[in-house]
Amino acid sequence: MTLSAPREQHTTNTVLNARTDARAQGGQRSEWMPYLPAASSPFVPTDVDPTALVWAETVAPGGYTHKVLTRGSRIRFDDPTGDACAHLVLYNALEPTERLNVADTQKIPWQAYLGAGHPLLSGDGRVLATVLADTSGRHDAFCGTSTDAWNEQKYGDSRPEGPTPSGRGLLVKAAAKHGLGRRDLPPSISLFQGVRVETDGQLAWQGSFGAGTHVELVAELPLLVLVANVAHPLDPRPDYQVGPLRVHAWRGAATGPADPRFAATPELERAYLNTIDYAEARGL
Questions:
Q1: Which residue range(s) make up the domain with 266?
Q2: Would the pTM of this model clear 0.90, i.e. be above it?
Q3: What residue ranges of the chain have pLDDT lower than 50?
């Protein structure tokens, strides 16, 4: 963690001294933290009104984050160095038993590789979010995230507070903030580090497209978003390599019948109709 200035030391042997010590730290900033208010982010996308932001954060390498967002929110993930790897899980924030279903996310659009226009579906036939823009093209909906056992074998450590945390371990911590446990975690998708299936069925790690890419989603339902920014499990590099991840979200509108993607296929149209029916029944 990088602080803007050395911490001034205070004794904490009394309540008053402890309060003075705590308040003396109030102006310090870390590289890895949410920006509050969100409009104060130094990395606001150029085409976004800062006053519309509801979430702005830089997630540390080996860090995690979580957020509840309203229907219609735009969510942008930026990879500034080419080494970010955002392992993403989505839930219906109103009913978290409805969650990302990776198999349906690949099956319904007849496309296993994520990109612009791709819906991220739940197992209930509804669209949780849609990929609106993608300048990376290097993503993975096959492997899920790293586990404790995997990281312990490869790096010798998997502790969330250690130098090589597993994605699963961090997502468990993020889920716990919302009353969810290990059994509530579905397989995740990964942004910015690509995987492709070879003709012989082997999974081939593609790595990153490079620094400066981004992915933008729109929330089709109220969302609980969990993200772990950790090394991809198929990354062949021997060291634990992952870069910072920037996240911004702002107010917007969900996909409607006027959007070209709404009726791009019969399967997508049914999924969006199911989503709108659910939202309208709840006054969203």
A1: 48-281
A2: yes
A3: 1-5
